[in-house]
Design brief:
heterodimer, A: about 325 residues, Rossmann fold, CBS-domain, 2 domains, six-stranded mixed beta sheet, four-stranded antiparallel beta sheet, 13 helices, 16 strands, about 35% helix, globular, B: about 220 residues, mainly alpha, MetI-like fold
């Protein structure tokens, strides 16, 4: 667990970067610090590995004040990923990844073997090992950056806007891979971003900062969308937060009506809705595991305003109209 | 004017006092000594200024001031103060070498991508490790450029040693002029020019060898 105890950072010149921050980042979870620029999120992150020293207050890792620990040794035990990856241009991909194990005194051979394993883990083939960072795309560099931070298997990872320098398609891909990786590894992660959608997608918890270094709200993504603490958070989270919050619930409890009026094949799989000009596409189907957001989207896009549910065998087993969804949401509220 | 002096095999005899090989050796001797002393002085200062950003006016102004000092004039001044010998020559040549090395060491350190250095520190490198494992290797291309230009200048200028009674290829120029032997002067000029080119080629190959391929731009 990473604990901020009434931490203040005032820069020479009087600018307050972090204003009386108290926060707990739970072990094994990913906490995302999010907010507009100049809100102190990066400063807070950098206090964890002593890249920034607090003016007052304490930062503790598992109850131990970081201020009393040897800087270099502390940092070797904490993975560090930054924007644009910050890879060493004069070292090969493999040697970049092997950096921390080598600092920790492992032999070159062990460090490189580990590095190779990690490259694979982040989705890079062994063919990349001998390349130099300048020969990689932005997304590939960022993968190497993550592999480098994981190389010594640190329990804690700090990530400062790790995915902001890549295009949206690659970013979505990296998000998915990173979530899978984190599911396996269960690291305690602190990540900084200015993108609230990224925060909600990746974080187990989200800490929203506002300008001047105030913590506006610390909550799970779901609570953040459902109950923003104030107007600033509500505004920052965005206008369609109601719709977005539907992505946290699955359709498992959503009542369905019997299949009626839908053309099926002999195995019961939906073919389409009969219309005056022949069959019209259903626009897709959902299962019990899909989110309410998916179901709502299907109902809206459907030519007849009805989303089709299928069972594990692909056979249609229920229908939901957007009225049904509205009724269900209303019943949940009461 | 002709090439008779240059092409006369008698002047190329190894070990002969005053022969061209012996002059080349002493010429290279002054060059290497001046470069070494200059590097020992200028490298740490330039790296320190570049690393900390403190005293950058010194790096820039020392560079300009040093460049505008006439080496021959400085040499005469040193001889007046210290008497004849190797020392005044080395001082004059070192003054020539310091500015390009100092400025390039400074510029090399200033040009570094600060994000990479931030990553190095954040991963747990100690300041000395950041300097030797990250900053120096990354600054090497710029730094080496300054060293090469210093080497070129000092090879060309080490001819002044002859004007205060020492050896080196300047002997061919000074002695040739003294006895109106223009063939000898021409030989001196050509050998100095060729030597400068060879020294630069040699340093270029060392540079290719020690600078990481990752710093040579995208391939």
């Amino acid at each position: 667990m990473i604990t901020f105890e009434d931490v203040v950072k005032v820069y020479p010149g009087g600018a307050t970067a972090v204003d009386h921050l108290s926060l707990e980042l739970p072990t094994g979870k990913m906490t995302v610090l999010v907010g507009p620029s100049g809100c102190g999120k990066t400063t807070s992150l950098r206090m964890i590995n002593r890249m920034v020293t607090p003016t007052s207050g304490r930062v503790l890792i598992d109850g131990r004040d970081v201020a009393g620990q040897d800087e270099a040794l502390l940092r070797r035990g904490i993975g560090y990923v930054i924007q644009h990856a910050g890879l060493f241009p004069h070292r090969t991909v493999l040697d970049n990844v092997a950096t921390v194990p080598l600092l920790l005194g492992e032999t070159r051979r062990t460090a490189r073997a580990k590095a190779l394993e990690l490259l694979e883990r982040v989705g890079l083939s062994a063919g990349f090992a001998k390349r130099y960072p300048a020969q990689l795309s932005g997304g590939q560099q960022q993968r190497v950056g993550v592999a480098r931070a994981l190389a010594a298997d640190p329990p804690i990872m700090l990530m400062d806007e790790p995915f902001s320098a890549v295009d949206p398609v690659v970013r979505a891909q990296l998000h998915a891979e990173f979530l899978r990786l984190q599911q396996d590894l269960g690291k305690t992660i602190a990540m900084v971003t200015h993108d609230i959608d990224e925060a909600i997608k990746l974080g187990d918890h989200v800490a929203v900062f506002r300008a001047g270094g105030h913590l506006a709200q610390f909550a799970t993504p779901r609570d953040l969308l459902a109950h923003p603490a104030d107007d600033f958070v509500a505004d920052f989270v965005g206008r369609d937060r109601g719709l977005r919050s539907l992505s946290f619930d699955t359709a498992s409890d959503l009542p369905v009506k019997p299949v009626d009026g839908l053309e099926l094949d002999e195995a019961g799989r939906p073919l389409g809705w009969p219309g005056p000009d022949g069959l019209r596409e259903t626009g897709g189907v959902f299962t019990k595991e899909d989110s309410l957001r998916v179901v709502t989207d299907l109902a809206i896009r459907s030519p007849v305003g009805i989303a089709v549910r299928v069972g594990p065998d692909g056979a249609a087993d229920g229908l939901v109209s957007h009225h049904d969804i509205a009724d269900y949401l209303a019943s949940r509220r009461s | 004017m002709n090439f008779t002096y240059l092409l006369d095999p008698a002047h190329w005899e190894f070990g002969a006092a005053g022969g061209i090989p012996q002059l080349i050796l002493s010429h290279l001797g002054y060059t290497v000594l001046a470069l070494l002393i200059g590097a020992v002085i200028a490298l740490p200062v330039g790296l320190y200024i570049g690393h900390t950003g403190r005293g950058s006016f010194l790096a820039i102004n020392a560079g300009n001031a040093g460049r505008s000092l006439p080496t021959l004039g400085l040499l005469m001044l040193m001889v007046t103060l210290l008497g004849l010998g190797l020392l005044p020559v080395l001082i004059a040549l070192t003054v020539l070498v310091v500015p390009p090395i100092l400025t390039s060491a400074y510029a090399g350190m200033r040009s570094l991508d600060q994000r990479v250095i931030d990553a190095a520190r954040g991963m747990g490198m100690r300041p000395w490790q950041v300097l030797t494992r990250v900053e120096l290797p990354m600054a090497l291309p710029v730094l080496f450029g300054g060293f090469r230009s210093a080497a070129l200048q000092v090879v060309a200028t080490a001819t002044v040693a002859a004007s205060v009674g020492l050896g080196g290829l300047g002997r061919l120029l000074i002695d040739g002029l003294a006895v109106n032997d223009y063939s000898r002067v021409l030989a001196g000029a050509i050998v100095v020019a060729v030597l400068a080119v060879l020294v630069d080629l040699f340093l270029a190959s060392i540079q290719r060898w020690i600078v990481s391929p990752g710093l040579k731009g995208t391939s």
